[in-house]
Amino acid sequence: MPEGDTVWLTARKLRAALAGRTLTRSDLRVPRFATADLTGREVLDVTARGKHLLTRIEGGLTLHSHLRMDGSWRVFPAGERWHGGPNHQIRAVLGNTERTAVGYRLPVLELMRTRDEGKAVGHLGPDLLGPDWDPEAAVRNLLADPARPIGEALLDQRNLAGIGNVYKSELAFLARVTPWHPVGGLPPGVPESLVATARRLLEINKGTFDRRTTPRTGAGGCGGDQPWSPPRPGGQRLFVYGRQGDPCLRCGTAIRRAGRDDRVSYWCPGCQSGPVS
Fold this sequence. Notes:
Keywords: DNA damage, DNA repair, DNA-binding, Glycosidase, Hydrolase, Lyase, Metal-binding, Multifunctional enzyme, Zinc, Zinc-finger
Shape: elongated
Number of helices: 6
Pfam family, one: zf-FPG_IleRS
Catalytic activity: 2'-deoxyribonucleotide-(2'-deoxyribose 5'-phosphate)-2'-deoxyribonucleotide-DNA = a 3'-end 2'-deoxyribonucleotide-(2,3-dehydro-2,3-deoxyribose 5'-phosphate)-DNA + a 5'-end 5'-phospho-2'-deoxyribonucleoside-DNA + H(+)
Strand content: 15-25%
EC number: 4.2.99.18
Order of helices and strands: HEEEEEEEEHHHHHEE
CATH architecture of the largest domain: Orthogonal Bundle
Strand order of the largest sheet: 1-6-7-5
Family: Belongs to the FPG family.
CATH class of the largest domain: Mainly Alpha
Oligomer: single chain
Radius of gyration: 20 Å
């Protein structure tokens, strides 16, 4: 599931393939921009902003895309057959003489003026993996609505940008509260530790698509300034997400699941306190 770390890594791969090279192929397969032709223009940069991707192109243009649940960008050597999904799922093709980037199942794809990027990402809070990261502002944003469930507050990209359902569930588990626990009811220091741990976990995982939140060896592998102690992982890469019915790594209680796919939550009813949806 694309979250801030996945989008950051995708931006890095696209940047390596496209930046500094002139486009020899351009195909935007969405009705509004189907006639746009970017060939002959140089790709200047590809950057991530929260869960958004901004491909900046010569001439003051930016191709804005968002992966949401199952979108992806795949990079292939020029001339290699594409294998990221059936052709009818392709929404964008950007190629040069060496590499071709193909966007599959992109729910958001728009070509805009670079000066107008704020219309797409200006509402976002501090980016967990961006140069604008501000942990104090992120904590203030989270605490602005004390009655709001912590899971909902963490998913709100206006508070801090980059957290999705996986990190929401994992962070709530580490803090020993359910995702529906009111933000204002968290013990002192926990909001700050949640924000610090979110940043640390995304930093650890931004170099790989194989996400891990459990410590690699023994306890305490998730950091040093948090007021909780992670259990031993037992070979698991995640504590609760995707583990419905499996035993909790901390107390052995069966993990539970609630919500829709776009707002799904996993938690342990044995060692996470607070209300349940």
